[in-house]
Write a structure and sequence with these properties.
Elements: H1 2-26, E1 28-31, E2 51-53, E3 60-64, E4 70-73, E5 86-88, E6 93-97, E7 110-112, E8 117-119, E9 134-136, E10 143-145, E11 158-160, E12 165-167, E13 182-184, E14 191-192, E15 206-208, E16 213-217, E17 242-244, E18 249-253, E19 266-268, E20 273-275, E21 290-292, E22 299-301, E23 314-316, E24 321-324, E25 338-340, E26 345-349, H2 352-355, E27 363-365, E28 370-374, E29 387-389, E30 394-398, E31 411-413, E32 418-421, E33 435-437, E34 442-446, E35 459-461, E36 466-471, E37 483-484, E38 490-493, H3 511-542, H4 558-564, E39 573-576, E40 580-586, E41 593-599, H5 606-619, H6 627-634, E42 639-640, E43 649-651, E44 657-659, E45 666-667, H7 677-681, H8 694-697, H9 704-720, H10 735-742, H11 747-750, H12 769-794, H13 805-820, H14 826-830
Parallel strand pairs: 3-5, 4-6, 5-7, 6-8, 7-9, 9-11, 10-12, 11-13, 13-15, 14-16, 15-17, 16-18, 17-19, 18-20, 19-21, 21-23, 22-24, 23-25, 24-26, 25-27, 26-28, 27-29, 28-30, 29-31, 30-32, 31-33, 32-34, 33-35, 34-36, 35-37, 36-38
Antiparallel strand pairs: 1-4, 2-3, 39-40, 40-41, 42-45, 43-44
């Protein structure tokens, strides 16, 4: 009896575990490998495939069925396996929700459900599994928010939720996971800012949040988070090795404190809206192997300290606004496999010691910059390089013969430069070439016959050069959709689809004479151009502007103003306000267009408005593109316009906007026309309904942030075509809410249709024109989103959250540069192989 009593609990436990496993099997709907057939009564359940038990008590401790092509839903009876320590069902096809009963597995240490099709939310009661050290649910279809209760799992070492559909913000409670080493949250729909509490994770070595919608303005010089790159990033553990924040919506600057992450090996910040310089301190990250900061708005020079990253293998700073020279210190990065500096404003010659880095094997992209000089002969050292791009620069001279030593090249793009001479015969060694583009240069001579033998060549662009002679008809030249030769008037022959003229049997035999004539003509032409430029320069030097209304003060009589405005006729009326009207006029003396403001001095406050405008005009010149920035930050004393609206922006004949009507302007000074708040209020409500910031209606003091609000509304109006006073905004909504609700997915719906009309572009390469258009459309859509975001940030209700006009100008200039920067045609080629 005693023996029976002691064994009965074990028997009951065994039965419970067996029933739980059978219920799990019952939910399996697909078993291509017949794994579940072994789960039968012919053997003890502890011998079933994937089941591990305690030897002593015969209780299930592990259930491991990964990579077995199982499908079905997860049985809630798994929660009855009370001794379970490890559950691994990864890389199958389980679907539906994760049962709440998993929260009863109090001994569970490892939960691995990655690479399935699980949906629903993450069970919040997993926090009851206090022994958990590994939780992996990556690559499923989970949605909802990350449960804040997970912050109770103090033993957690590795948490992976990336590649799901999770939303909401990162719970601050995750900062309590003091043992956490890896946090993977990338590729979800997370929003908001990174919690300040995560700096407590002193053991963190891998942190990834790329591919979300994390946003915010990153503060510089403050010890708090406003995104993922605040200065207090230096508070992260120095043991962190992987920091990935790419492809979010991060504003701000990379902080100098990044240099404290001395063990960092991967820094990935691509695809954000980061401003400012690349910090000099990046050069102190001596263990850094991969540095990605492409597709941002970074400016300034590339610091020389980057050459201290001697372990660097991949560097991507493409698509920014970086300027200056390519630092020669990069030659010290002897392990570099990939370097991308394209689509910037880099200038000067290409350093020979950099282009000669023999370690480069994946790609070297210097295209779309302003690089000058010759292609260095050191390029011949790139024997292992696969892709080389120097398109759209100002490189000149002959193509170096030793370019043929780059025998591993698959893509060679030299287009849109000033190269001259013939294609070197040494290029015949590049038999692995798949794409060759030398278009838009000054190359001459015959088309090399060796190109016919390049069996891998899928794209050849020789267009817009000075090639002559017979075009071959074999090899790549048989495919008109892969060969482009237009713009070479002296080429003939080839297949009919190339539309070249037939070759004359008596083609010129005296090449030397023709070459001599060409050289003489070129020399004479250059001399003539140089002489003309000298004459123009001397004429400009002698010319003195005497009557320019834009740069000198004209003394105008009342009669001349009367004639200029057609006696202040209604046809010349531009607009009217509280204190007067503005008329357009044309001066007889020089034909210049002017704006004339007529004050009604009988109106109360008109005199003070007149004095304010005179004082403002005396201190500034506001016919510049950055008018508001100039008013707020560049004058001796800051000036607030107070009434920014469409009717106060006048367009000249070049469609350049000029800020006008300073009748309500306020100068922030103690010794100049500095009215007290009571005096200011005597002029009534500052600004115009719809454009005036909400705080002015509450009696708040005037500030430059009021102008910022008006500018934001003006920006939203320009790009939506909707006024803030439209009828649709009468019932509780407004223009700000209308735009905010549409971003980012419905930006096309809210954009003024006139702005969406396609511009006609010259398509040089026919088979990739569609790719170019797609790239162009993607770029415009991205820029539209950025512009609307600036408008929203400027017109936010809270004054303290608005941007400064100096930051607005920086971002708008960056957007302008991105929008009007030429799209590289070879971008469409790269992705097709």
């Amino acid at each position: 009896m005693l023996c029976l009593a002691t064994k009965s609990p074990v028997i009951r436990g065994n039965v419970t575990d067996q029933l739980a496993l059978l219920q799990f099997k019952a939910k399996i709907t697909g078993d291509q490998l017949k794994i579940m057939e072994s789960w039968n009564s012919s053997s003890h359940f502890c011998q079933w495939r994937g089941v591990t038990c305690y030897r002593k008590h015969q209780r299930v401790t592990k259930l491991e069925l990964q990579f077995l092509e199982l499908s079905g839903s997860l049985s809630p009876y798994i929660g009855n396996l009370s001794f379970l320590k490890g559950l691994n069902l990864a890389n199958n096809n389980f679907y539906n929700q994760i049962p709440q009963e998993f929260g009863r597995l109090r001994r569970l240490e490892t939960l691995e459900l990655s690479n399935n099709s699980l949906s629903g939310e993450i069970p919040s009661n997993l926090s009851a599994c206090s022994m958990l050290t590994f939780v992996h649910m990556r690559s499923n279809q989970l949605k909802g928010e990350i449960p804040a209760s997970l912050g109770l799992l103090s033993n957690l070492i590795d948490l992976r939720f990336y590649n799901n559909s999770l939303t909401g913000s990162i719970p601050p409670s995750l900062g309590n996971l003091s043992s956490l080493k890896e946090l993977h949250l990338a590729l979800n729909g997370l929003t908001g800012n990174i919690p300040e509490t995560l700096v407590r994770l002193t053991n963190l070595s891998f942190f990834s949040i790329g591919g979300n919608a994390i946003f915010g303005i990153v503060p510089v010089g403050k010890n708090n988070f406003g995104g993922v790159f605040p200065d207090c990033v230096s508070n992260f553990s120095s043991t962190i090795m992987f920091l990935a924040v790419g492809w979010n919506k991060i504003l701000g600057r990379i902080p100098d404190g990044i240099e404290n992450l001395i063990n960092l090996e991967v820094l990935e910040a691509s695809g954000n809206e980061l401003l400012g310089h690349v910090p000099f301190g990046v050069g102190r990250l001596h263990k850094l192997k991969k540095f990605y900061a492409d597709s941002n708005f970074l400016s300034g020079i590339i610091p020389n300290s980057i050459g201290n990253l001697t372990m660097l293998m991949e560097l991507a700073l493409d698509i920014n606004n970086l300027q200056g020279d390519i630092p020669s210190s990069l030659s010290k990065c002897q392990d570099l496999l990939l370097m991308g500096l394209s689509n910037n404003i880099l200038s000067g010659p290409i350093p020979g010691e950099v282009i000669g880095l023999q370690s480069l094997s994946i790609s070297l992209d210097l295209s779309s910059n302003y690089l000058t000089g010759k292609l260095p002969v050191e390029v011949g050292k790139l024997k292992n390089l696969g892709k080389f791009y120097v398109s759209q620069n100002r490189l000149s001279g002959l193509l170096p013969d030793n370019l043929g030593r780059c025998v591993s090249l698959e893509h060679l793009f030299l287009d849109a430069n000033l190269f001259e001479g013939s294609i070197p015969a040494s290029l015949s060694l590049l038999r692995g070439l798949e794409a060759l583009d030398v278009s838009d240069n000054n190359l001459s001579g015959g088309v090399p016959e060796f190109l016919v033998s390049f069996g891998a060549l899928k794209y050849l662009n020789l267009s817009f050069n000075k090639f002559n002679g017979v075009i071959p008809s074999e090899g790549v030249f048989k495919n008109a959709s892969a060969t482009f030769v237009e713009g070479n008037n002296k080429l003939c022959g080839g297949i009919p689809e190339l539309h070249l003229s037939r070759c004359n049997a008596k083609t010129s035999s005296n090449t030397y004479v023709k070459l001599t004539i060409a050289i003489v003509v070129v020399i004479l032409g250059v001399t003539l151009v140089f002489t003309c430029l000298l004459i123009l320069w001397f004429r400009k030097k002698e010319k003195k502007p005497t009557t320019c209304a834009e740069n000198s003060l004209l003394q105008l009589s009342y009669q001349s103003i009367l004639r200029a405005t057609n006696e202040f006729s209604a046809q010349n009326l531009i607009g009217s306000g509280s204190f007067g009207s503005v008329y357009k006029g044309i001066l007889e003396v020089n034909g210049e267009a002017i704006a004339v403001k007529v004050f009604n001095l009988l109106n109360r406050g008109a005199s003070r408005s007149f004095l304010a405008e005179c004082e403002a005009l005396r201190n500034i010149r506001h016919h510049v593109a950055h008018a508001l920035e100039y008013l707020h930050h560049c004058c001796e004393t800051s000036i607030i316009h107070c009434d920014l609206k469409p009717s106060n922006i006048l367009l000249d004949k070049e469609m350049v906007g000029h800020l006008s009507d300073f009748g309500l302007a306020k100068i922030l000074s103690t010794d100049r026309l500095n009215y007290s708040s009571s005096q200011s209020s005597s002029l009534g409500l500052r600004g115009t309904i719809g454009y005036a910031p909400p705080e002015y209606a509450m009696g708040s003091e005037l500030s430059t942030k009021g102008d910022v609000y008006s500018y934001g509304i003006l920006l939203l109006e320009m790009f939506t075509g909707k006024r803030p006073t439209d009828e649709r905004f009468k019932e509780g909504s407004n223009l700000y809410q209308f735009v905010k609700a549409a971003l980012p997915d419905r930006v096309i719906e809210i954009t003024d249709p006139i702005l969406l009309q396609e511009r006609v572009r010259r398509g040089i390469v026919r088979d990739i024109t569609l790719n170019v258009v797609n790239l162009e459309n993607d770029r415009r859509l991205h820029c539209l989103n950025l512009i609307f975001k600036i408008g929203l940030t400027c017109s936010v209700e809270s004054r303290s959250e608005r941007m400064d006009m100096s930051d607005v100008v920086i971002q708008l200039c960056s957007i302008r540069d991105k929008l009007f920067r030429p799209i590289q045609l070879h971008r469409g080629i790269r992705t097709s192989y």
